[in-house]
Amino acid sequence: VNYLIRIHKTVDALIRPVPGISTSDRDGQILQRTKRGWMWNSFFLLEEWTGTGKQYVGKLHSDMDKEDGSVKYVLTGDGAGTVFEIDENSGDMHATRRLDREEKALYTLSAKAVNKTSGQDLEKASEFIIKIHDINDNEPKFAKDTYMAGVSEMSNVGAFVIRVTATDADDEAYGNSAKLVYSILQGQPYFSVEPETGVIRTALPNMIRENREHYQVVIQAKDMAGQMGGLSGTTTVNITLLDVNNSPPRFPHSTYHLSTPESAGIGSPVGRIKAYDADVGENAEMWYSILDGDGQDMFNIITDSTSQEGVITVKKQLDYESKRLYSLRVQVTNTHIDRRFEQLGPFSDTAIVRITITDVDEPPVFSRALYIFEVDEDTPAGSSVGTVSARDPDTINHLVKYTIDRHTDLERLFNIDSNNGTISTLQGLDRETSKWHNISVLATELSTALQTRVPVFIKVRDVNDNAPEFAMYYETFVCENVKAGQLIQTISAVDTDEPLVGHKFVFSLSTINPNFTVFDNEDNTARILTRRGSFNRREMSSYLLPVVISDNDYPIQSSTSTLTVRVCACDSRGNVQTCSTEALLLSAGLSTGALVAILLCILILLMIVVLFAALRHQKKKEPLIISKEDVRDNVVSYNDEGGGEEDTQAFDIGTLRNPEVIDTNKLRRDIMPEMLFPFRRTSPIKDNTDVRDFINGRLHENDSDPTAPPYDSLATYAYEGNGSLAESLSSLESAATEGDQEFEYLSHWGPQFKKLADMYIGQESQRET
C-alpha cells in the first residue's frame, strides 16, 4: 500500500501543470518537462504494524539529485529521528516502532535536500503529513460497569427504563471500526434495547412488583456494525420495579377478640389490630375507623403511623356491672389511592372486634365529684355541717368507712361520722379568720382497704358578731383661735362583718361634750365640729373624745372609739405652727435640741460610772491564802505537780552540788518567769566552799535586799539555817487551834516579811472586829 501511495504521489507530481506552458500548447505539441523542485502532500501508514523490521513509509527524491552521492536528505518535525528516520543518501523513510492511531493520528514533518560538500540547501524545505490509518483494535466501552434504574410496576410495553451508551476509541470516519450496535444478552423477555441508541424499554405488560421486584439485564455494544469479527463490550443494568398502589389492604382475620379491665383509664389502649398491604411506602399507609357497633361510644381507634396498626383505646369509663361485652365493626382504608388502578379495588376492608370487660375490685364511689356545705360562724361545737355518701360499685357491696384527711384539717376543726359520713364541727368557726375551709374526705372499703378521696368545701356564713371601729388612726388637732361650729376632722368606720344589705354605721357621742360635737353624714362618715371657740393649750394640751359607732345588722353591735384632739397654735389661715408638747417646752425656754443634749450628758455620765466600777473590780487581787484552812508550809502554791526525783525541769540540783558553775541567775525552765524585779548580780563564790557556806551567802543576800520578795519559794534550799528570827515555818509544830496563834511578831522580822505580816495581822483584826 505504501508503495502504491508513493507511486501515486510521483505520478501526481508529473501531471501537475508547469508554469510557462499553456494548455493549448500542451494539446498541439509534445511537451518538454521543465526541471523543477520536487513536492508532495502526505503519506499513509497502518497502525499496529505486525511485520518484522522497520515499517517502510516512502521515498523522498529530488531532481537535483544526480545520484552521485553528493546530496543528503534531512528530515525534521514530529517524531523525526525518534519515530521516523530517513536514509540521507537514498531518501527512504521508515517508522522505527509500531504506531497507535489512538495515541497520535498524524505527524507533520519537513524534508529538504542538502549538498554534502557545501552544506547548502539544494531546494527549499517542503512540509508533508504522515497519517496513521485506523484498524479495529479497540473494543467498545461503557461509562459504568453497572447501572441502576427503576420503572413503575404495571407499566405498558415500551416504557422507558434507561439509556446506556458506549464509546469506541477507533476512527469513526474510517470504516465501521467505531460503528456500534446494542443488543441484550440477559433480561429477556422482560426488557429490550434499541440497537442504535441503547435505550432499554419494558417488553412485557403489567409486571407486578409483588411477584418480582428486581431484574438484572446485560447489554452488549459491538463495533463493525455488529458484523462477525467485531469487538464488543458489556455492562450490567440492575432494574427495580417501583411500587404503585395496586394492592388493597386486607385483614388476615374477619373477627378479633380483645379484653380490658373495667378500671382501664380513659385513653388507655385495649389492643391492636393490623391489616396487611402488599404495597410499600406511602402506598401501604392505612387509616382505621369504627363504622358501627354497640361500643362505638365507649371505644375509639387511632392509627399508629409507624407500625400501621389500629390501636383501640377507651373513650368512656367502663363498668363491668353495667355491660360486659361490646362489639365494633372496624374499617381499614388506604390513605393514597391511585385512580389508575381503582378497578383493582375496593382499597378497604372491614373486620369485627369483640371486647370483653373483666371485673375489678373497685374503690368506693362518692355520689358527687365534690361537696359544698355552708355553716354559720360561732356555731357550737358538735353542730352538723353536711353529709357525704359513697357506695361500693362492685357486685358484692362492702362496708365503707369515712375519715377526714388530717393533712387538710391541721387545726382539727371538723369531725366525720365513720359510718354515715356526717361532718360536724369540733370547735367554733370564725368567718373573719377564714371564710372557707377545704378538707378531703376518704371513703375506705373495710375488706380491701381501697380508698377514694373527695374534696369538701365548707363556707362559713357571716354573723354580726363584730362591732364597727375607726377605719384608721386619726391625728386630730384644734387651733387655739378656732371658732364654734368649725370642722376639725372627718371620720369613717369599718366592720369585719359582711351583711347582705351592706354596712350602715351610726356615729354619736357617749355623753354630751361641752367642747366638741359629732354630726353623722349618714354615708358611713361623720364630722367632728367644735362646740365653742378659744382653746388654750397651756390650760389643756389635748382632749379625749369618745365616739360611739353602731351598725344596723342584727343583733346590733357597737363600740366606743376614742379620738384624741390636740390643741395647737395656728396662724390666721388655720395652718398649724406648734402643738401642745413642743409649745410648752418652748415656753419654758428649752428646745428639742437642749433636751437631746441633756439626755446625751446623762448617758455619758452613766457610761463613765460603769467603766470606773469595772476597772475597780479588775484591780482587786485574789488573796494568796484563799481560806483559813489553806495554810501550808509554802506561802505560795503552784498549780503544777513536780515529777519527783526525776524532775530536772523545775530546778537544777547541780547548782547545789557544784557552786563554782554559778555565775548567772538560773531561772525555772518549766514556766514563764514574771520579771517583777531586775536581776541581781551575785557575788562570786570562793573556791572550795561547801554547800552550807553557799546557802548562808544566799540567805544573807536576800535578807539585805529590800527589793527581794518576802517568800522563800522562789528558790528552795536544802538548809534552812540556825538562829532564824522566824524559826521554823512548818505547820506541824503550830498550835492546835487558830485562836492560840498570834501574829504580832511578824512585824518585827524585817522588811522581808512585811507582806506576810500585813496578811495575817489584817486577818486577825478583821476577825476581832
TrEMBL record:
Membrane topology according to the record: Single-pass type I membrane protein
Signal sequence range: none
Key words, A-Z: Calcium, Cell adhesion, Cell membrane, Cleavage on pair of basic residues, Glycoprotein, Membrane, Metal-binding, Repeat, Signal, Transmembrane, Transmembrane helix
InterPro entries, A to Z: Cadherin, Cadherin-like_dom, Cadherin-like_sf, Cadherin_CS, Cadherin_Y-type_LIR, Catenin-bd_sf
Any coiled-coil regions, as ranges: none
Spans traversing the lipid bilayer: 583-615
Record GO terms (molecular function): beta-catenin binding; cadherin binding; calcium ion binding
Subcellular location(s) of the protein: Cell membrane
Domain annotation Cadherin: ranges: 62-142, 143-251, 252-366, 367-470, 470-584
Major place of residence: membrane
A GO biological process held by the record: morphogenesis of an epithelium
Gene Ontology cellular-component annotations: adherens junction; catenin complex
PANTHER family for the chain: CADHERIN-23, CADHERIN-6
Entry protein name: Cadherin-10
Originating species: Cyprinus carpio carpio
